[in-house]
Design goal:
about 500 residues, 6-stranded parallel sheet, binds 5'-O-[(L-methionyl)-sulphamoyl]adenosine, elongated, Isoleucyl-tRNA Synthetase, Domain 1, 17 strands
């Protein structure tokens, strides 16, 4: 079997309901997966939920239910949202599943035996929201820079992962694999962090009960991040590779998937994925992922999303009114993937009306209306040529290059540049009046436009799969019918 293109999202914490930020990464993975599939590649798209740790324990306690019940209910919310957003994932791993827990326990014991994990004592400042110890140097005014809360001083017996041993191998790896740290402008942050020296990492807790117990010492549970990262391997059959009996018939052969091609994540968890995760993989003697891509963060109407502001955007509030595809389009057109962005309803409506209702929707309607009048039907074989189609072919190459680089906004720019020139072409050639004097030329122009629209239809497929299906139906050969607008304008 040929190796699949393996793309992952972070596995999401289940302490609160999903919002637009979670949807962002998952949609990006979906877009990449759909694009790769359209190119004939075999794709495996994994997402999941991160279900252990003190935060979940606390949330369940506050709700008066067991952590298991809490995560079962909350996982449903994520799964529902993925359905609404038309996410075509191949697997969704939950870290409370036996297929995951067993692999984490086994890996822990392997590294313990190898000496990459050892027992010691730890005292340090712990940010509960990060689920991580923070170094004094990372604190801002004594507080966690991300969560703006004071970390707690904790002392405990713990097992350590020998992260310090991987400083040099990691630096060498970054040097030799320039695409691993992506986008490139984020690489320096990681390289400098590693160059400054790595400390061994505490990977067990005695105070957290809601976690995977260490097999050889169940008084300890495994640190939620050590547990979580392993999902990328447990989901694809590493348990079978390790010879764990229950997984002899597991559905995946690890070797057909690993190494991952792209781990998509948000910038705040870059270090976990670009430092700790590759070090764990090196300790296991496994090849490293080809790319870890850290995208930026969304604010909402200029503000950080937060509990205190209560400004989390549930994507369903938008999709129920305006449809799923416009949201999928908007968030990838509006902001370069990789950078930060701001979500505002005004910007959304503006793009909806300008890009979708006007530029694309009207183009399709007017082309098909004129084609209905002048051609009647779209022929099976259209031998159209002309400058417009040459430009489409060139744009197609640019589009592919951008998609391969995860430059989704640029890929869409390339498509909308063509859409713009098609609208201009219609305005200039005026087929409606040309038809009276030069019917043959008019037909050729309309055919050219139909063929160019098929390119557009292809380009938007990963972003707006339902819209593109509908466009393809309208543009197929055969009699042309009357259709309602693709995107009815949003009125003020
Ligand atoms: N459970 C960890 C990840 C473990 S992966 C082995 C975690 N979970 S999370 O629920 O907090 O989700 C974090 C991810 O959600 C971010 O990395 C990012 O992909 C996405 N986002 C959450 N809020 C976001 C924004 N405001 N904007 C963009 N994406 C954000 O961290």
């Amino acid at each position: 079997m040929t190796k699949k293109f393996y793309v992952t999202t972070p596995i999401y914490y289940l302490n609160s309901a999903p919002h637009i930020g979670h949807a962002y990464t998952t949609l990006a993975a979906d877009i990449l997966a759909r694009y790769k599939k359209s190119k004939g590649e075999e794709v495996y798209f994994l997402t999941g939920t991160d279900e252990h740790g003190a935060n979940i324990e606390k949330a369940a306690l506050n709700a008066g239910i067991t952590p298991q019940k809490w995560v079962d209910d909350m996982a449903e919310k994520f799964i529902d949202l993925w359905k609404v957003l038309n996410i075509e994932y191949d697997d969704l791993i939950r870290t409370t599943q036996p297929r995951h827990e067993a692999v984490v326990q086994e890996i822990f014991e392997i590294l313990l035996k190898k000496g990459d994990i050892y027992k010691g004592k730890y005292s340090g400042k712990y940010c509960l929201s990060c689920e991580a110890y923070l170094d004094e140097s990372e604190l801002v005014d004594g507080k966690c820079p991300i969560h703006k809360k004071e970390p707690q001083l904790i002392e405990e017996e713990t097992y350590f992962f020998r992260l310090s041993a991987y400083q040099e191998p990691l630096l060498k790896f970054y040097e030799q694999n320039k695409d691993f740290l992506s986008p490139h402008f984020r690489a320096a942050e990681i390289v400098n962090f590693v160059k400054n020296g790595l400390k061994d990492l505490s990977v067990t807790r005695t105070k957290v009960k809601w976690g995977i117990p260490v097999k050889s010492n169940p008084a300890h549970t495994i640190y939620v991040w050590f547990d979580a990262l392993i999902n990328y391997t447990s989901a694809i059959g590493y348990g079978k590779t390790l010879g764990i009996k229950e997984f002899a018939d597991y559905k995946c052969n690890f070797e057909d998937y690993w190494p991952a091609d792209t781990h998509l994540i948000g910038k705040e968890i870059f270090r976990f994925h670009a430092v700790i995760w590759p070090a764990v993989l090196m300790a296991l003697g496994l090849p490293l992922p080809k790319k870890v891509f850290a995208h930026g963060w969304w604010t909402v109407e200029g503000e950080k999303m937060s509990k205190s502001l209560g400004n989390f955007i549930d994507p369903r509030d938008i999709t129920s009114k305006y449809g799923v595809d416009p949201l999928r389009y908007f968030i990838f057109r509006e902001v370069p993937f990789g950078g930060d962005g701001d979500f505002s309803m005004e910007a959304f409506k503006k793009r909806f009306n300008a890009d979708l209702a006007n530029d694309l929707g009207n183009l399709l309607s007017r082309t098909l209306n004129m084609a209905a009048k002048n051609l009647g039907s779209i022929p099976e074989h259209c031998a159209a040529g002309g400058g417009l189609l040459d430009r489409c072919a060139a744009a197609d190459g640019e589009y592919d290059a951008h998609m391969e680089n995860l430059e989704f906004d640029k890929a869409l720019d390339a498509a909308w540049l063509i859409i713009g020139s098609m609208n201009k072409y219609i305005d200039e050639t005026k087929p409606w009046s040309l038809a009276k004097t030069e019917p043959e030329k008019t037909k050729a122009i309309l055919l050219e436009l139909v063929l160019a629209l098929r390119y557009v239809c292809k380009w938007i497929t990963p972003f707006m799969p339902e819209t593109s299906k509908e466009m393809a139906r309208r543009l197929k050969s055969g009699p042309i019918e009357k259709y309602p607008p693709l995107f009815p304008r949003i009125e003020a």
